[in-house]
Amino acid sequence: MAAYVEMDQVTKTYQMGEVTIKAADGISFQVEKGEFVVVVGPSGAGKTTVLNILGGMDTATTGKVSVDGTRVDKLKGKKLIQYRREDIGFVFQFYNLMQNLTALENVELALQICKDPLDAKTVLEEVGLGERMYNFPAQLSGGEQQRVAIARALAKNPKLLLCDEPTGALDYVTGKSILKLLQDTCHKKGMTVIVITHNSALTPMADRIVRIRNGRVAEMIQNENPTPVEEIEW
Amino acid sequence: MKAFRKDFFREILKNKGRFLSVFFISLLGAAFFSGIRSAEGDMKTSADAYYDQTNYMDLRVLGTLGLTDTDMEDIAKVKGVAQVTGGHTLEVLHKEGEKEQTVKLIALEDGVNEPQILDGRLPQKTDEILVDQKFLDGTGKKIGDQVIFESGTDTALSDDLVHETFTIVGSATLPYYMELTRGTGSIGNGSIDSFGLLLPETFTSEIYTEIYVQVDGAKELESYSTSYEKAVKQVQNRVEELEEEACQRRYDTVYQEGQDKLSDARKQVTDGEKELADGKKTLEDGTLQIEEAKDTVAEKEKELKENESLLAEKETELQNGENQLAAKEKELTAGEQQLQQKMQELAAGKQELATKQTELTDGKVQLQIQEEELNTAKSQLEEQAAKLEEQKSQLEEKEKELDENEVTVTAGITQVQEGQEQLATGMQSVQEEITRLEAQKEQLSQMEEPDAEQLQQIETALQELKQQLTGLETQKEVLSQKETELTGNLTQIQLGKGELEQARTQLDAGEAEISMHRQELAAGEEKIAQAKEHLAAGERQISQVQKQLADGEAQIGQAKAQIADGKKQLAGAKAALADGKTQLSAGKQQIVDGKSALREAKDEIDAKETELEDGWKEYRKESRKAEKKLADAKEEIADGEKKLEDLKVPDWYVWGRDQVSSTENYGQDAVRITNIGKFFPVIFFLVAALVSLTTMTRMIEEQRQQIGTLKALGYGDGVIAVKYLAYGLMFTISGAFVGVLLGEKILPWVIMNAYGMLYTGMKEYLTPLNWEEGGLAILASALCTGVATVVACYKELAARPAQLMRPEAPKNGKRILLERIPFLWKHLNFTTKSTIRNLIRYKKRFFMTVIGIGGCMGLIVVGFGLQDSITAIAKNQFVNLFTYQASAVFNGDATEEKKARVQSEMETYPGIQQILEMYCQSVELQSPKRSVDAVMEVPKDLTCFGDFFDLRDRISGKHYDFPAQGAAISEKTADILGLKVGDTVQMKKGDQIVKVEITEIVENYVRHFIYITTDTYQTLFGEAAEYNQLLLRYEDTSDSYEDGLGQTIMEYPEIAAISFTSDLISEIDNMLRSLNIVIVVLIVSAGLLAFVVLYNLNNINITERQRELATLKVLGFYDGEVASYVYRENMVLTVFGILAGVGIGAFLHGKVIRTVEVDMMMFGRSIFFRSFLYSGLITLAFALLVNGMMYYRLKKIDMIESLKSVE
């Protein structure tokens, strides 16, 4: 049986003026449904490229990408947008919330365009923002904002939750609580979560670790016994 | 610094959209600003070049009694005068068919007011003329055609000009007739239609109409400039100082000339009276002589009459004698005729007698011959009778013989027949015997034993019998022969009998013939006997007649003798008569001669008498005339004396170019463009500045972090500020520079071209670069951008680097009022909510955008509004206010009856609804402030005036009645004159100046009008109005109908011209089309500006929102959904901008319209709804176009790059 998420010999080259940059150079890995995956590697190794390709924000130059049987590498234009819209939830380092919509409205904004959404208020309560859902982003702390972002991603009920350095802009404690939220979401709801980080210390919490170096998968480890976030220190 | 510069240039290349929008906004702003503002200067410069080229006079001196060479010499001596030229002008009429043109003839002078030849050449001979193009257009004449002019006054044209007929050699323009109007005149309909240029020698007068002065150094100055005006004014004042002395001198000359003329006239009158008296005396003598001659003739006449009656008596006598003679002669002729008849009768008788005698002799001879023939016939007859008797007896004998033969033959026949019978019986018995024997023989032969003997016997017996039978047969034959013989005999006998019978018949016929002949003979004998008796009687008659004839001959002889006697007598009488006649004719001749002599004498007297009569008649006529002439002359002398007494010291008018309507109006029009330039480009410029300000502010905000970095690196504030300042100024100044170049070349040219339709003559349009305006535009642009940049920089530079390095805290989202109404708020979707919050959050941008778009929209509205105002003119004037369709002008000499006839006849023309008779006259309206040329309208009939004109108030729309007292004047006229209802206006008609109170001010758009009643006219001018126009109303305004109407009405000799309202409408529309070009320039420029502004604002908007938009994209919003998020905001801003534009436009329009108007016209004051609609739609269309262009930018937003990090 094919994996839930599969990347097979994915390459990506950028043409930056006269320079050609090889951001991914034959990346292959598989992820099973419901796994918490950490993609780890140093800056510029091609992590974000992998994420962008998986999330339909970018397209692979060559190689095969499939998510739940969908060949993402073959999608184009409106189909690609539709894939993002219905199958993917994104969480960014800098939250990217709409500044003039409240927390609730930011979640609802995502909901109004997808087919089978969860209830916005419930999701916000689940991420622990039940009290602050009527605040504007500017009135929330970074962690809270990231929670809104996660709630916005989760409320879409996606097949895949993609997180790009979700704790990058957060302090240690807040970061931890965000990671906890993500891990809990994965384990409790069976959501497939892929987190990108440069921080190798986070690897123990993952069900699967993908190490990327210089645009290639250096190793892929299946962790039978992931450590709960609380026990990880960095 | 190298890296810093690199960064600077990369900045430019990186954001081409921003670069171009700032560049183009500056360009448009500067182009429009400097272009429109240079237009006035360029127009004036072009005109000045034209004036210099044609040596246009600086001053014109006019004298009410004309100007002399001495005047000219004096003026030439004035300080500052460069050149003086004396000029002649004369207003004349050109009539062709029904068309009448007033032409101002002007003497061509070298070196001043030189014409520019359009076609043909200058006149070289005194009978050649160079004409106005308007003359050719108006009359349809061509170069090479002959024109004949007529005097418009009592003075004969030959008094003023060498010729009256001229050949057109070309067409030209004059510097002081740049306009299409040629001013007012003193003849014809009061306005001059065109000019004509002649050689100065063509004018006979030595007195100049005007003197042209050129001022020293004025040519180098620009015509409309203050320095020029100042230079000319000085000289003008100096020339005016000469006036008093020159005018007194001119007065003295004219007075002396008058006195001389008067004394001459007085002498002439005395001479005339003497001549008259001499003539009368001669005539009286003549009358006396004729009376004497008449008496003599009467005596002679009486004598002649007596002689005549004597002659008449003689003539009667002679007539009687002649009559008798004629009767006698007739008798004689009758006798002679009788005699002639008798003689003829006698001759006839003799001839008859001779014939009778001959007949008688012939009868006798014939009778003898007949007797002899008769006798011969008798003897022949007897002989024939004897022969006949003999033949008879022979016949009887033969008969007897034949009868005997017959009997014998018949008996023979009978015998034969008996023998035959017997034979037949014998034969039969033999036959029977044979048969029996044969039967026996048979029987025998049949028996066995025939009895040969018996048989023999029988055989023998048979033999015998057969012999017997043959014998019998022979006998029978003999018998039948005999019978045949006998029968033949019998036939012969019968034949002979037939012959006999025939002979007997012949004999009988012969006998009958003979007896007939015998009878005939007897009749002949009897006839002969009768004839003999007849002959005897004839002989007796003849002898008797011979005797009668002899008697007749004797009688004739006697008669002949008598006639001869009568003839002789008659001849004698005739001779006597002829003598008498000769005498008589001699007498008659004498009388005829006498009579003719008498007639001649009488004729002579008659002729003399007629002559004398004529003489008298002439005398009476001439004396009456002469007396009248003398009286007139005396009166004239008296008049002259009075005039001379009244003669005032003349006035001089010293006028500069500003008194020439064409020159002055052109200057005013140029100023008007500047007036447009006051509002329009400023608004334009403001919008442009506003937009570049927004752009620069945005740019600096965007580069906040970079500024922070630079500062952190240790760059000074000044250097950093200079970077942005340089950036902003570079585009602003380069844009403005290109804008100035384009604007100052294109816009003035377009505008001058447009005005070229109204002002002819200028050959080229000069568009020098006007660095004053250009510099101003560039400077203003630079200042706007510079200040904006510095202000924006200052805010950023004031902050600490650390602050700058961090992203600017996003402006807080705020709850807005609308959220308090959950009912509405809940139904909005999130992008809409975001849009509304955005609009309210960024108030600065909101207002900037609204003002930007509103400004552009406002400019477009003004453009369309101007067009509305202009196009409204013709329709308002000629459809709403003047509700008639045509006006026909009467000839000046048409009498009242003829005018009435034309009117009544035209009223029956099919389609004509109404006709109004009017008196229209050009007048000048004056107020202390200004004066304008206007048309005075005096309707004959006030009751139907309202059907032809609508006098109303423009604003309230209230309809006025015709002013019973005072006058109604048009709105613009009142405006120019600075007068209002209740004020008094001064009206100048010819030489008369009257004052009238203004009681109504009425809506009017084209030209100036003053309306008064006939009574008011009578009161004001002391004369009755002479109606000179017919206004016509009808429905059908098609060309075909109007052509027909025009032809019909022009057939009346009383009608001089007809003009149709429909033609006027198109004429005005054509004229105003020139302004339309300016308007199109406005609209296009404003549209362009709107486009650039919208593009720029959108561009800023998108750049600002890039992160938000990328987030939406990542969330899976489709391109269309992302775009609509941006567009919604844009559209709302655009709609607000359009609404603002309506207000801005309406306000600007009101301001601009007053400055653009010409004196002659009032433009419409309102903007049609349609124009707002068009302007809004244009703005909206640009907004949509910009949105369309932005769609691709939105599509291209890179999610990854935008979201990577906070800039």
TrEMBL record, chain A:
One of its GO terms (molecular function) is ATP hydrolysis activity. Keywords: ATP-binding, Nucleotide-binding, Transport. The keyword Transport applies. It holds the Pfam family ABC_tran. CDD domains: ABC_MJ0796_LolCDE_FtsE (cd03255). The keyword Transferase does not apply. InterPro entries: AAA+_ATPase, ABC_transporter-like_ATP-bd, ABC_transporter-like_CS, MacB-like_ATP-bd, P-loop_NTPase. Residues 5-234 form the ABC transporter domain. GO terms for cellular component: membrane protein complex. PANTHER family: ABC TRANSPORTER ATP-BINDING PROTEIN MG467-RELATED, LIPOPROTEIN-RELEASING SYSTEM ATP-BINDING PROTEIN LOLD. Belongs to the ABC transporter superfamily. This is ABC transporter ATP-binding protein. It comes from Oliverpabstia intestinalis.
UniProtKB/TrEMBL annotation, chain B:
It is found in: Cell membrane. Keywords: Cell membrane, Coiled coil, Membrane, Transmembrane, Transmembrane helix. The chain crosses the membrane at residues 679-700, 721-742, 774-794, 846-866, 1075-1097, 1131-1152, 1172-1194. The keyword Transmembrane applies. Residues 385-404 are annotated as: Disordered. Residues 679-792, 1081-1197 form the ABC3 transporter permease C-terminal domain. It holds the Pfam family MacB_PCD. This is FtsX-like permease family protein. It comes from Oliverpabstia intestinalis.
